[in-house]
Amino acid sequence: MIDTNVIIEELLFVIKKQRNPANRTDLQEAIDSGAVVALAPYELLDEVDEKITLFAEERGIPEDSLRRAWSAYRPRINFVDVGPASAEEVAEAAAVDPDDLPFVRLYR
Fold it and tell me: Is residue 41 part of a domain?
């Protein structure tokens, strides 16, 4: 399962540290080889879009560069509908971070 923080770190690496565009991160290589199947809830799409804007401003990275990197990375991820949450799951998530609920549901 891939979460937002993993994707943001991957994108930051690609934008800031990757010298050769043909080189891939370890995670990209694992996914591309079939050793890892990257799963994420559809909610990841909105979360990453929000974080890209924030990280671009905070770190002085052109937002369009991050968005291009995200566009190239996105096809590696299999997005999954995790369905509606139970009242108990919503209550548990509210105590920690409600945005994590889709990721927790996918994990379970």
Answer: yes
